[in-house]
Amino acid sequence: MNTFEEKTLKRETIFDGKIITLHVDEVELPNGKTSKREIVKHPGAVAIIMITDEDKLVLVEQYRKPLERSLFEIPAGKMENGESPETTAKRELEEETGYTCEKLNPIASFYTSPGFSDELVHLFKAENILKVENPKTEEDEFLRLHEVTFEQALTLIDEQKIYDAKTVYAIQYWKIQRALRK
Predict the structure, then answer these.
(1) Per CATH, domain 45-181 is 3.90.79.10
(2) What value does the CA radius of gyration of the chain take, rounded to a whole number of Å?
(3) Of 104, 148, 106, which is closest to residue 126 (Cα–Cα)?
């Protein structure tokens, strides 16, 4: 057994919803004792960095019920069963922004909260963006599009209007790319 591995002794599914499943696992710890772990299973998600020809980052403003407020975020969304990250990214880009792109460059993949969730986010950069005529949208999503400069993005972070890890990660990536162009 791996030095830090926790062997699952028993699993109870507490909730099986549209987006997540919640398990409570009884585990054997490396020292032989037992403990409980609450685990959120998630199908995975994508996030897209989309920078316009004017060097502006495209953000969506969206109300986030768990936080009881709106945030400015890069376009993102949940992967559907059997969907590749690239397919999800193209679909979400159109649904949330009304744009598509000729190419998606993979940037990174990362776990959002590995202490309790297996959600893996795949981050892409959209290249050669194009406006879509009659884009497909989600009935239950209410979004406002914003195009912001790098300086405006930093201000939104300071104001805690950008307050999620994937968007801050994207802005750090943008900062590095801007520095490499100089």
Answers:
(1) yes
(2) 19
(3) 104
What are the residue numbers of the active site?
139
For residue 133, the model assigns a pLDDT of 81
83 annotated as a binding-site residue: no
Quickly state the pLDDT bin for 69 (edges 50, 70, 90). very high
Q: Is 92 annotated as a binding residue?
A: yes
Other Cβ atoms closer than 10 A to 4: 7
Residue 98 tokens read as 């009304």
Q: What is the pLDDT of residue 79?
A: 97
Q: Across the chain, where does the E strand assignment appear?
A: 7-16, 21-28, 34-41, 45-50, 57-64, 69-73, 76-78, 99-111, 120-131, 143-148
Domain segments of the chain as ranges: 7-41, 45-181
Distance CA 15, CA 24 (A): 10
Between the CA of residue 160 and those of 32, 64, 77, 168, what are the distances in Å? 44, 14, 21, 11
Average model confidence (pLDDT) across the chain: 95
Assess whether pLDDT exceeds 80 at residue 134: no
76 is in an annotated binding site: yes
SS3 category, 152? helix
Predicted confidence at residue 139, as pLDDT, reads 76
